[in-house]
Amino acid sequence: MILQILLVYFFVLLFLAGIVILVYGALRDMLSPQVFFMALGLKVVSGVLLGLLYSHYYCSGGDTFAYFDEAVGLASLDSSAFWSEITASTLVSEPVRAIWFMRLVAVFIYVTGADYWLTTVVFSVVSFLGTVYVVRAFSLWDRTFKWPAVLAFMFVPSVVFWSSGLLKESLGGAALCSIVGFYAVFRSSRQHGVGDVFFMVLSILYLGIFKYYIAAMLVPAVVFLFLIQFSKSWLPYWSEWQRASLIVGMLAFPVYVALTWLSPNFQMSRLIAVIQFNHELILSQSTTSTLEVLTVTGTFLDWGINGIYYIFSGLFRPFLFESWAFPVWLSAIENTLLLLITFFALSRKGGVKKLFKIECIIAIVYVASCAALLSYSVPNLGTIARYKVYYFPVLILLLASATVGSFRLGSQK
């Protein structure tokens, strides 16, 4: 038994090492070995620490061990029963996304025989490779984006931690990197390879299945940016705002149809009710670090006030004074630094370079939309820290780029 486990570790780690060495060899002129292997080490260590956090600190096991335990149960079935269970349909009343993710993990365990800790290393490495791809893409697009991208996708502590290990966010973070990186490669005027297209399609499918609300905000935003770039040759005499208005009008109905096909929760008759149900459910299950709706004027002005409140909370809370419980205070330190950096970026003089203006606007809209939707529908600061994986890197990229001169976020001279 021990020999079998050692052989599994040997061959899986050897395979991962081969992939990592090949990727590094292709990028060694772009990323120093110190940056590359430090980022890889942080990902792997974070994945292991995530498992230790849930097994020794929370003692509940959390999602990460629940996925693995159920996956092991499936993987222990005989071949016929296993594939029958993997391909079985699910009921609407069941936690569909959790079931399909567990099945994905089960396939990996069935093929490799990996234990929890080896599985978490593999997921962490896959997540890391996603960050390498997006950093390369931004570096090719414009050299001033290189270090902002390195910081945003490889070294933000909360993003690194919650996008590592055996969680949906590990592959979700990699999917985000693949989709955003695909656009950055396009903007670099380089032709996409077969691998670019394959992983982009795979990433859209993953987010559509496991994180459909992120896909609903990210994919239309990227499609809009592609169409804006194409429209420069289609409508050369139109202003960018005219082209943008036309594209928004063209996309509105197809996007709505696509979203309602993706999930019936996006139907106008259900959307608000589903969000409100999730909001009240999370509040009823949480005892601390909750985000209650504010009542200030008792009028429609409260809608705007709460909109700003939830966007701000989704970006910058918890504050240092809100909780000293571990690991919340670590997130609070990061949020405080981010708030200070945001003030600094906004205080700088100069306007956004025309070359990047539309991307900057769409990025801000995407970040604000994610912060507002997630902080309201999941009004628990601990849970939001995990979901920031999907929009924090974009915000950090904006702020870091503003400090190195790619563009300014402050008022124009």
TrEMBL record:
Keywords: Membrane, Transmembrane, Transmembrane helix. This is Dolichyl-phosphate-mannose-protein mannosyltransferase. The keyword Transmembrane applies. It comes from Reichenbachiella agariperforans. The keyword Cell inner membrane does not apply. The chain crosses the membrane at residues 6-27, 34-54, 116-135, 147-164, 170-186, 198-229, 241-262, 293-312, 324-346, 358-378, 390-410.
